[in-house]
Amino acid sequence: MKKKLIKDFASYVAISFFFASIFILIFYFTLKSKIDVVVSLINTTAVKENNEEVKVSYNFEAKKLLKYPDYGQKYGELSISSINLKLPVYFGDNTKILRKGVGHYAGSYFPGESGTIILAAHNNVGYFNKLDKVSIGDVVNIKTTYGDFSYQIDSFKIIKETDLSAFPIQHNEELLIMYTCYPLSQNYGRTTKRYVVYAKKIGDV
Amino acid sequence: MKKLKVIVKYFFGLILSILMAFLCLVLILKSTVLNKNYLIDTMIKENYYSKIYDEINVEMEAYMMSSGFDASILKDIYTIEEVKNDVNQYVSGLFEGKKIDIEKGKIKDNIQKNIDTYLKERNVKVVNESDVQLFIEEISDIYCDEVSFYHFLDFLVGNFEKIDYLINVSIIISLIVIVLLIIMLIKSRILFSSFIASGLIIFFIVFFFQTEIMMDDVLIISLIFSSLVKNIYQTIMHYMVITSSFLIIFGIILLLINSMCKAKKKR
User: Fold this and answer.
1) What is the pLDDT of residues B32-75, one digit of tens each?
2) How, if at all, do strands A139-144 and A116-120 pair?
3) Residue A50 predicted with pLDDT over 70
4) What is the number of other CB atoms lying within 10 angstroms of the CB of residue A137?
5) Residue A194 and which of A37, A186, B74, B246 are 20 to 30 A apart at CA?
6) d(Cα A73, Cα A86) in Å, to the nearest integer?
7) Active site includes A122?
8) What span, in angstroms and rounded, lies between the C-alpha atoms of A170 and A116?
9) pLDDT at A205
10) Is residue A107 located within the same domain as residue A166?
11) How many helices (H) and strands (E) does chain A have?
12) Does the distance separating the beta carbons of B214 and A46 come in below 8 Å?
């Protein structure tokens, strides 16, 4: 009797596993692709907050980074000796990043990628407050974990904050664009102008 | 004919297990993420209001960096009670289908007062008053954006009532069909297998989401909002595990009792 009871019980448990398996098959053949889209959308928002400087690898031949830093990660240091400036460079340019140093606009290229690099910082003391004191010919160095890059300043201008033509994103030559709020000296309130400095690459170390 | 009856019973058993799993999931959602009181209770438990209060201050200080002012202009411009009331008002608006515009007049006045004091103390005259007004407008927008989840949930306004209606209709229809199927299968042990199967289905869904979604690292809007979302997600997963365990154990117990009774009868 015991054997029959166990056999009986096991067969109906097997039926329940059979029902669950049918559901799983229906799920895989109908809904899975749609759910995969939702899951991948959610997973793209999964970022690990990492404030450490990241080691980034670079392909010198292809002039392309092999691994990009995460948003908010420090990847280098910017220095302009003519105005005694040295600041860390972070990937991204939100308000939290700009509190820490120079923000790299996420839609622009990285040093060494032969494209436009757009860097921003506040016009406060210790940030880009002396950016208007640079001269044509001054050298800007960007030291990264994958190499050192030098740029020579060749022009600057004052623009309206909405003038996006001042930030051409291109991939023909390596162009460094640094900008900050204008006027740089004591100004109260919300600035609607930007001071923009352009520099071209002069070589890698 | 007998074979057809058996196939029909198995088919009804399959439908019953899927419907029971669906009903449990919908009830869990209705009592959690679609329940205003649950959301407010979760925000209280998570200290959401005080975290947002601090976050607003951090964001405003970061925004203020190139304005020429210092942190003194942000002193006492809003209170934690005001943050709590505004957040709750916004959440209530979502559930009631009303788009709530967060009132920022008081904050703007307070910032203006602080700026006037700041400038008077330093004996400074502002060159461009419009720059200051634009700054006040935008910094007070930070408050409005933070308390309204950066308008991330605005799509629910007007749609929430439709979602709620659909869910109520689906609950009623599922209940009716489940009751009918139970009545049809009352003399068959496939009924108990359906209970176990619905528990297994819910367990599979939990397993799928826990393995596929990287919920620990999700970042939506801000860390604070993400923490709230993660908390709600984990609660839903927890309820689903409890429900699936209950259904499986309940089904096994009923099956055992029924099998033992049938074995005794045959003797």
Assistant:
1) 988 999 999 999 999 999 999 999 998 898 888 878 888 889 99
2) unpaired
3) no
4) 9
5) B74
6) 17
7) yes
8) 6
9) 39
10) yes
11) 3, 10
12) yes
Task: Please give the single-letter amino acid code of residue A112.
Answer: G
Which chain B residues have a beta carbon less than 8 Å from that of A123?
A: 66
Tokens, residue A171: 């991939």
ipTM metric? 0.78
3 state SS of B29: helix
Query: Which among B66, B111, B222 is the top mutation candidate for probing chain A, defined by the most A β-carbons within 10 Å of its own β-carbon?
Result: B66
Region A14-34: mean pLDDT is: 88
| pLDDT exceeds 50 at position B226 | yes
Residue corresponding to tokens 């002193």: B75
Higher pLDDT, B30 or B97: B30
CA B128 to chain CA mean position, Å: 45
- Owning domain of residue A183: 58-204
What does the block give as tokens for A97? 């990043």
Residues from chain A that touch B223, judged by Cβ atoms under 8 A, are 49
Shared domain check, A177 and A145: yes
Q: Which of A18, A34, A15, A134 is nearest to A81 (CA)?
A: A134
Look up A181 and say whether it is catalytic.
yes
Nearest-by-Cβ selection for A12 from B127, B189, B223: B189
Q: Do A109 and A182 sit in the same domain of this protein?
A: yes
Residue B69's closest chain A neighbor by CA? A188
Eight-class DSSP state of A120: E
Is residue A50 included in any domain, yes or no?
no
